[in-house]
Amino acid sequence: MDSRFCAATRSISSILALASSVVTIAIAGLPVSAQARPDAPSSGLINPRAIVFSPATKKVYAVDTDHGAVQIYSGSSMQMHPVQVGSAPVSIAVNTVNGKAYIANAGDGTVTVLDGNSDAVVATVPIGSHPYSIAVNSVTGKVYVTHTFGDQLSILDGATNTATDLRTGSSDLIAIDSRTGTIYLLGYGGAVKVLDDASKKLTERQVGKHAWGLTMNEVTGAVYVTRIENADLAAISPDSSNPIALSAGAIPCAIAVDSKTNTLYVANYGDDTVSVINAATGRKTGTVPVGHHPKAIAFDANLNLVYVANTGDGTVTVIDAARLGVVATLVAGKNPYALAVVPGSNRLYVANEADDHASTVVDLAGIQKQNQ
Fold this sequence. Notes:
four-stranded antiparallel beta sheet; Thrombin, subunit H
């Protein structure tokens, strides 16, 4: 399965054969790009945007792919209720200004638009087959969607709910710098494509093959790409065309950013660790052992805690960022693969890959007390 998706994504084991010098493992659940090869892959959903928190509405949205629904946690008690959307929803984005939520439905090639207040479906927009990752520029209101096995980027006008396509070549993940109107697109083939939204000019930054996760520091504008074969990150500065390599651990697959301290936390699937990197100096400042096969990672700036989803043992590791120590290992769902943080909350929201429950809630009340 894939931390990037797919209506069908092949096993990682064939890709790791290309990178056997890094680590020898047999996996059926590591994130792999749908663009890795053109033949039909063989598994199911995995997407880092499968569960998100909306700061505008204080709600959490999680895909329920099997049931064509989105699970919405809302209210002071954050009770969950489902809302039907399109077929096989895989990723979600929210507009942090007006609260609208956008869901990419891989099964029927649509985007569902939800009203942030009422949770009503206000539009269903056809955009073409196999939408994969979705993101919103909350400044302009535009919504961007990649397509598995496609070479187009769909762009929705948030005011009219109309869509146009732009040929960008194949890509999976998206990061947006809303201050500059720059869109970063990552495919598995070795380049980050940089799109200027105003001019539609497209350039490329080469980052090497087997690029995996994509994360942006929204304060500095720097973009970071995990490279599973090299056991490192490619750091792309907004004012430089030459990425810098930052050492991580074996098979790095996800990154969380503390923008205030310019610190990166990298989940290393291959050696069950989190690497801590000072992004300003490029130096690794620590390594923290976590659970088995960490696949997702998130940072809560309010509590100064790092959360790591360990897909191999169905747990979440909680790390105190101040002392770089594990303060708890908590039971999550089966094969957790994506996380949503409500800053300062006593709950963590988890998307599960192989569970009767598409999402679960982890109680953090005891963890808060330890860090007060």
